[in-house]
Structure formats: C-alpha cells, structure tokens
What we know:
Helix content is 31%, strand content 33%. It is of the alpha+beta class.
Amino acid sequence: MSIMEMNGSAIVAMVGKNCVAIATDKRLGQQALTVDMGFEKVFPVTDSMYIGLAGLATDVKTLRDRFRMRVNLYKHREERTIEPGTFANLVSHTLYERRFGPYFVEPVIAGLDKNQQPFICNMDLIGNINYAKDFVVCGTASDNLFGMCESLWEPDLGPEDLFEMVSQALLNAVDRDAMSGWGAVVHIITPDGTITRELKGRMD
C-alpha cells in the first residue's frame, strides 16, 4: 500500500456561477482501521479561499501550520490579502522545496479572486499545479470522484445546485472506497460569504 493511501481521504472542489465548492470526507484511518470520524482536511486560508490536504495525516497538520504562517507573513509584508493564484504558487514552492524528501500530501485550493471569479486547482506531492475550470479531485477515492463529477457537473450552477452536485458526487464516491467516508463537510464560497454544511454518510 502506498503511503499516500495510509490514512485515506477524498477531497473535491467544483466551480459554479460566481461561487465555488470544496468538500471532504471525515474519516481518519490506519489502513483499514478507523481511528477518527471527524478529522479536519479542509482549512480556511482567507475569508474567500480554502485549502484541502489529502494524504498522510501528520504531513497534513504540518503543512496546515506552515501555510498559515506563510499567509500571515505575506499579509504583514504586503499589507493585503493573498489572492488564490498567488497562494497556489506559494503552496507549489513550499512542496517543491522538499522534492527529494517530499510531504506526502496532495493539495486542493478553491476560492474567489478579487473580481469574485472562481479559482480551483490541485497539485501532486512535489507541487506541479493543475488548473481547472470545472472540478478537481484528490485522495484515495479520486477515481470514483472523477466518474461522479464528470457525470453530474454542469456549468453555471448556483450555490444551492452546486451544493447538491458536490454532495452527491462525494457521498457516492466514498461509498465505493473503503479508505474514506464516514460523513462529509461541504464549504460553498460565495461573494456574500461561506456556507458550511455537514453531511451524514454511511458508517460501515
């Protein structure tokens, strides 16, 4: 088993009309053993941007703190809030610095830029950025998520329709992956604020 699959995870980000969604499962496992049913994998960066970290749980916590520090340093030095594109490059450089002994994490970034336009991207564990206009996925359930998102996603979805789409995609994908699931958390980022909802999932 790959070290990337040790703890299990499923993260998806999806673009709507002037809104963006990012969703994750809640399970933390030690291979097939479930350790925690409320492990946080998606973290706020600014009021209109979130990052999801799928992979080894210890590296998820390490990078969460490192990115928080670097974003705060940027804010103090530049005297402005970091933009999603800038933050994506910051994350990419942070991962590439450790390319010979990498963090075992695949990040997903979702947010709105200063023009309230949706931005999503994901990366591999050495920081190669993949920009997208529809959806990005990562984690042990990524193959299942690709199939569900390609079936369900439509352009120009409103916040409520986007919530329904990303929720159905995630819940149905993790039902077919033994390493992830046990509920989900969905964040819908809109120009008016962020809506966070928790979903119940299968617990077997």
